[in-house]
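Single-chain item
Fold in token form
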Amino acid sequence: MNRILKTPVAILLMAALAACAANDPNRRAKEGAAIGAVAGAILGHQINRNSGRFVGAAVGALTGAAVGNYMDKQQQAFEKQLATEQRQHQVEIQRLKDQSLKIDVNSEVSFGFNSAAIKPAFKPTLDKVAVILKRYDRSIVHVIGYTDSIGSQAYNQQLSERRARSVAHYLIAQRVRPGRLYTEGRGERDPRASNATAAGRQLNRRVELIIQPLVQGHEQRAYEPPPPAPQR
């Protein structure tokens, strides 16, 4: 699991935002930068999954009977908000057997070649994702980056990690609570298709958001890294 961050997020945010004067015309921009800086510190501690959960991450666990209905409504909200992106094959939404939701993001529309910088045109899509995540906050969100097999394994691993962190940083800047976000890079592992073709490599270059519900009595499961999906 990700390393526990000992300094509460609230304290970090209060300290960062205290520097933004109420009458400062650039206050909103400075607040965004402050939040982003805190996000970077937090996520830097969340890459290593060697210990327990993030302090204060859970809002309130769902009872077993309520999980299905809660995730149904969340899935419907994502499908409504991301209908255009789904039609354009930029985003794919799936419901998993364990009640988790998986959002596949095509890296061709989200990142430039050999880059971990989010494309400006894709930010409105992430804005929509952030709105739903804030509305349905009884979950832990795993952001996982993948690449194709072009290039060295070491480089692809680093690129996948940087892309996952970029997405998480952006979501935190949109005020998704940092304690809910865990990032991981899997490089060229767990391909969705063969890397022997251009079409297959495009499917393998992706970022996944796995949204795992917090279930009462089984909260720790939400923090566990999602297993790889079966190959298609």
Observations:
- DSSP finds nine helices and five strands in the chain.
- The radius of gyration is 18 Å.
- The longest strand covers residues 139-146.
